[in-house]
Input
Amino acid sequence: MRPALPRLHAITDERIARRADLQEVARDLATAGGANLALHARGRTLSGVAHYDLAFHLSNLPSPLFVNDRLDVALALHAAGVQLSTASLPVSAARRVRADWWIGKSVHDLAEAAAAKAEGADYLLVGPVYATASHPDRSPLGLGALGRIAELGLPVIAIGGIDLDRARHVKAAGAYGAAAIRALWDALNPGDAARRMLEELQ
Output
């Protein structure tokens, strides 16, 4: 039986991938969150080798590894799940590679969410819910749109400007969990940040 989908997702980017303290912070997050925190190896402009190195440094920790877009990297490192974008291979293709993966789809509105559900996604990464420096060109969805997407029935992981206070609000709006970059990786105490955010998401 597949383990439960983690409620908190610690997402990397190219900047985090190159940090000297990557493994140290990942270990703090994983120790605090355990199986209820997913470590996501994401880096859109990383080469295949660099993406593999990033994922490798996030593996063999108490938290499950999820890999964004690179199914080859996910397969090589026995990842627990993959996160697909609208430009990725379809969910059905990922399912043929590993039937037991958690397969998520990144969506930005209700139409994309409905299409991802029809495609067979296991969960939806929905955002940006709030304004975020990661996607300055995208207008925030807001809690109302997040709630309508949650009504489709798939677990929803909210992303975009999520911090401790906002984790409480997205949970109240119907989200199953939340994902963050800066609120976790750049926290003064990453482990404490993860623990406190998970408390709000239970």
Q: What stands out?
A: The longest strand covers residues 102-107. The chain has a mean pLDDT of 96.
